[in-house]
Amino acid sequence: MNQVDEIKQISGVNPLKCMKCGKCSASCPSFYEMDIKPHQFVSYVINDDVQALANSRSAWKCLSCFACIERCPRNVQPGKLIDAARQILIRQRGQEGLSADEIPALLDEDMPQQLLMSAFRKYRR
Amino acid sequence: MKYSYFPGCTLRNKAKDLDDYARACAEKLGFFLEELTDWQCCGGVYPLGADEIASKLPSVRALNAAKENGQDLVAVCSACYHVLKRVNDDMANVADIQTRANNYMALPEPYMGETKVLHYLEVLRDVVGFENLKKQVVNPLTGRKIGAYYGCLLLRPSSVMAFDDPENPTILEDFIRALGAEPVIYPYRNECCGGYISIKEKEQAAALCQRITESAAGFQADCLVTACPLCKYNLSNNSELPVVYFTELLAEALGIKEVQE
Amino acid sequence: MQELMERAKELLASGEVARVLGWKKGENDWDVEPRFFESVDSLQDFVYDGFCGANLSKYMIEAGKKEGKTLVFLKPCDSYSYNQLLREHRVDREKAYIIGVGCKGKLSISKIPFDGIVSVQGASYPDVSENLTVQTLYGTQTVAYKDAMLERCHVCKGKEHVVYDELLGESTDTVDADRFAEVQRIEAMSPEEKFAFFQKELSKCIRCNACRNVCPACSCRKCVFDSTAFNSDQKANTTSFEEKMFHIIRAFHVAGRCTDCGECSRVCPQGIPLHLFNRKFIKDINNLYGAYQAGSDLETKAPLTNFTLDDAEPGVGRG
Amino acid sequence: MRRIGVFVCHCGSNIAATVDVKKVVEMALLEQGVVHAEDYPYMCSEAGQSHIAEAIREKQLDGIVVCSCSPRMHEATFRKCAEKNGLNPYLVEIANIREHCSWIHKDMQEATEKAVILMRAAVAKVHLNAPLKAGESAVTKRALVIGGGIAGIQTALDIADAGYHVDIVEKEPSIGGRMSQLDKTFPTLDCSACILTPKMVEAASHENITIHTWSEVEKVSGFVGNFTVDIRKKARYVNMDKCTGCGICQEKCPSKKPLNEFNRGLNNRSAIYTPFAQAIPNVPVIDAAACIKLKTGKCGICEKFCQAGAIDYAQTDEIITQQYGAIVVATGFDTIKLDKYGEYAYGESKDVITSLELERIMNAAGPTKGHLERLSDGKAPKEIVFIQCVGSRCSDDRGKPYCSKICCMYTAKHAMLIRDKYPDTNVTVFYIDVRTPGKNFDEFYRRAVEDYGVNYVKGQVGKVAPQSDGSLLVHGVDLLENKQILKKADMVVLATAIEPNSDVRKIATMLTASIDTNNFLTEAHPKLRPVESPTAGVFLSGVCQGPKDIPETVAQAGAAAVKVIGLLAKDKLKTNPCTAKADELRCNGCSQCAGVCPYGAISYETRQVNDHGIREDRRIAVVNSALCQGCGACTVTCPSGAMDLQGFSNRQIIAEVDAICR
Amino acid sequence: MPVTENWKPTIVAFCCNWCSYAGADLAGSSRLAYPADVKIIKVPCSCRVNPMFILRAFEKGADGVILCGCHPGDCHYSTGNYYARRRMTLLFSMLDYLGVEDGRTRVEWVSAAEGVKFSETMNSFVEKVRGLGPNVRLGDLRCRN
């Protein structure tokens, strides 16, 4: 399977439904942290450049807050695309956004287990 | 009324308060939370990949256990609730996941999403009833101005969560009112605090939290209430405004928790 | 039974009714047949017992053409058929005096598993026994009443009459089976098994038309299979497909109208479980369009003359 | 046995290049009853038709099959040809060997085989065709227009001017519709009332127009040329003949709580009210839900003050029944509800409003007397943000999938008017696309940008966040700059999607006119018959058929009127002879067929029949052929096959099936 | 009956006059090919199609029968296709119950504007029926063993 099909399968998103209104980018709390903006995600898939998307800063900066998913008027849901792009990256090279060795330095007393769990789930395979 | 109860990792640990008060208040209000015997961590994040099964299985096990108990499944933690509910939706509606998960689990009877997943707040709203709850309050929180912080996980995606209006929710406000306090409506109560990234991107998380807490403070909130341990951690780290679990408020109003002067 | 006969005599004698439609004793205990009784005297042959399975409602079409009122005895399940005919304007309520009779389950002689049966005791109303005593050429046997009951009684619609002028006698709850279990069993089969099952059953069909003639819903003045309306008149089968065609179309024509009275299966001389066709439609209708019982009232729109905007699409839920 | 002629058309090379027409002719001659077969390059031409005429005469044909293009193209042509030559037109059948054969197949042998089979099916059918005769029905020379907005008024005026009587039914207390709520109109900026009011007056005073306001269509039966309509005239509690329209009652009425619908609920009105000053008729109605007298029996102040003695608390609804030859639907639109769009804070903040509400605010008769102010604190807004496509172009379950068409233009209008009147107020428009096809439309929009300095930003808004200082923080995006924008505004205006009036579904059902998934009425043909509904005699005017601006609405209103006039000008209408018919000997009288008839065309009568010597009274279905449209639903419901459809009879279709499968 | 390579199925398509027949015409004028095995019978409305017609087709040797009508909500007669939908749902379910392969029957809603859909529908239906091979179970089958 090529990457375009793979990202479509993982995300369940049809990028062609996008009408480029930008509501996702208007809603995104991480907009300024991202190099590729939410409304641009679909173009990368349509233009067969999933790798660039997976390699982008955006893949690690998405908060998974679903604001773009909730508000998208076309049911495109770009948040699912970036999540899928990250999955592709993680699977492909065993790339990780977080290694176990980093953890002790990051810990503090109040940190809930939930954060570690979700960080691992999000950043690692 | 008895419910199967999924506490989740954090409630057994850092968020003991959330858990203890939830159980104690339930008893007081006439419903019982029976902890599932062998629950496994839900994973904290809904496993998005439609092609992945393994990461969904802990939730399926919990859901199936509740089904076998013949009970609805209650969660208190927003993340657990979110993950359980979404996996359950997959099990009910996504044929591929249904088949593969069941093939793997090889249960005596396939699990097809039969269990009803409820958040503790939904039990308060739909079973106990806020009117009824109001009657049981012994220490009304009169004069307190409390901002509800919903965050992302309870509300979105609304097509699956169907918890409340995703942009204009009211359940926590109604809850606050029932306890005798005044809810503060502020626009960022459903905007993300950046919980997931707070482990590595502290600055970004701080900025997001400030936007929320400053907005709430601007509307005269004297504290924030949440159902999510991660939100509480993140907001507390980045704000002057006290952040409490909704079960703490509940316990206080019901006279279960000692009021600290 | 005595009670029924007395009441019939009374109504006949008073002139309130011109005739009585009931069951007549046969040569054997189990050979009961429907009969119009025109006089008080003739009522000596009247019988009402466990073998009175015949549904009299269809005869009321003919009764409507005669002068005066006809007294008819209807069991609870028969009353549904009568109601359905009423809603289709096939019977005249004004010309009927309906006595709803109690029912404790009806028997099928073919379910009594003995050879050389001479007589059957224990089926007299109102006092049916738990067991039937069967005299055979080879001695006395017993069989549980329940075990000799018609299939339809095991899945009985209930003890209530949906139309009557007066009620006589008690009914018993006889339900001990799931009405759709057999249909479900077939649905679960592979296409090959299904086909083999129906091929085997329908191969027995001799096109005697008994099912059609007894069916209260099959009351067309002229059946399509006897007419040229579709170029479909069939005297003798030219292809064996025609049996299948006949039974499918017959079931389709009564879909939404069939009360599931089970008469088709009761009268089939070849023992084909014809109710399985009708019940499949009933099951689908209940599942797809909401529970519907033909004949239960006169107002509810029948499922095939009704629709909703978001009905299921054909083929959904199959295979 | 029929004597059938088969005529195979080459259609130039359209058919002949793929179908061996000679072979079809040859095979046709082998069919039972075919006494003549020939091919010709263009059967539909004068010359081709003369071949058919000649064959009818010379071979005494009593059945014709033309193998040619789709019957939708030339069935009528060949039927006319047969009729001219003394043959009943319904003895002609078409085998479609072009659209359904030669155009879609490449292989000549395959296409020829198929053409032969299609020919056979047509021959088999024509054997069973019966000569049918179209009936006639009279035309009631009166039209009904449902809806008294600009569409309905214009249609009524045009029909009335042609000399036919028209009734307008309007559910509100006055005609005028949405247009009467508008302040100014694009692209000319002339005042809406100034151009609408004269038309309202003209309609009211026209001798051929009867206006029923505060009325609704209750029931429709009948068919083209002969509709019977029940109109419910709701109790007005004011005697229309006595009232002078002085307005004292409204002034004195103590019940001032009800929301003013005309002002979109932005302020209040009295319980007795006319919606607006120029209302026609200028007779108030009493809102029974708000009237103290009607609710409690006490009060009666309006009655006391009314010098004309027009108040009548005892009035009740009245049903009037009227015959019409044609019906025009002009039910218009409303804006969608915004409760699913919580992110825009409509409902949360009084300063987030819809464009139609802004229209009322800008209007001198509106809640703020035409002053642009914030409804929350009455302050003049200095920063206004317009958000486009709110609920339009949404394929989720919150909004509408279509473009509402008018928003780009009215937003440009609003922006321009605001900048003109309040030059120190800044206007920002967040848009996805600016769509301005129309005469002088793009020029208009460009003026807003170039001459009035309206700030157009390409990008949708994600959220409007009401701030504690009373301002609104708009979270938008500028896609061209690739920047997120946070814009502090004093007022936010939402270009809310429009949708057909909520009553349209009910009305469409009564008229058996079809509506699409968005509740717009469907036209008979999207290009060629845009103002007719597929139901004969029902016509469409205005936004009920699809989003339109005023000029388009008026144009369509006129077009609908012309169609109505064309219909009413006829004295008789030909009816479709392909109607259902019950065989009295087979009919059970079971009433199932009537249950599925969408036209109420089936009734039952008891009559004596002679069934092979047995005479008896039977209940028999009778089809009113003037009502029957020939769908055939009844024929399948009939278990005995008594009900059959002429022209598509059971035996005809079975014959076609047999011919294809043999 | 063994399936030979040259075997061609016989397929009857009932098309309503207002939508699907016009859709088939549009497929034709757009030159959207589909197999010649499909033969169309015009009916005024999908609700005119009697189950008897469908069974008759099978009896006489059809290998597949498809019914096309206006989309629900678009019926020229407002309600016809709703009745057709219920009738065909039940009929097809019955055929399935009798062990007839469900690929041999189909209902598809095709509007006058959907020439592409008409052609695609016919292509996929023919392919399905070809895959199933000649219709044995509903044809002139000897029921008597």
What would you say about this model in short?
Chain B is of the alpha/beta class and 261 residues long. Chain B has eleven helices and eight strands. The relative contact order of chain B is 0.15.
The pLDDT mean of chain B sits at: 92
Based on helices, strands and strand pairing, what is the structural class of chain B?
A: alpha/beta
Strand arrangement, major sheet of chain B? 2-1-3-4
Main beta sheet of chain A: strand number and arrangement? none
Distance between the termini of chain A: 20 Å
CATH architecture descriptor name of chain A: Orthogonal Bundle
What order do the helices and strands of chain B follow? EHEHEHHEHHEHHEHEHEH
CATH class of the largest domain in chain B: Alpha Beta
* Shape annotation of chain B: globular
- Please tell me the total number of domains of chain B: 2
The CATH class of chain A: Mainly Alpha
Uncertain regions spanning at least 5 consecutive residues of chain A: none
Protein architecture, described:
The complex is a heteropentamer of chains A (125), B (261), C (319), D (662) and E (145). Chain B has a four-stranded parallel sheet with strand order 2-1-3-4, with helices on both faces. Chain B has a four-stranded parallel sheet with strand order 6-5-7-8, sandwiched between helices. Chain B is built from eleven helices and eight strands. Chain B is globular, with a radius of gyration of 18 Å. Chain B has two domains: 119 residues, Glutathione S-transferase Yfyf (Class Pi), Chain A, domain 2; 125 residues, 3-Layer(aba) Sandwich (Rossmann fold), CATH 3.40.50. By secondary structure, chain B is an alpha/beta fold. Chain D has 662 residues and is of the alpha/beta class. In chain D, 28% of the residues lie in helices and 24% in strands. In chain D, α6 links the parallel β6 and β7. The two termini of chain D are 21 Å apart. With 145 residues, chain E is an alpha/beta fold. Helices cover 38% and strands 16% of the residues of chain E. In chain E, α1 links the parallel β1 and β2. The two termini of chain E are 16 Å apart. The C terminus of chain E is likely disordered. The chains are: A mainly alpha (125), B alpha/beta (261), C alpha/beta (319), D alpha/beta (662), E alpha/beta (145). Chains D and E meet through α4, α5, α17 and α18 of D and α1, β2, α2 and α3 of E.
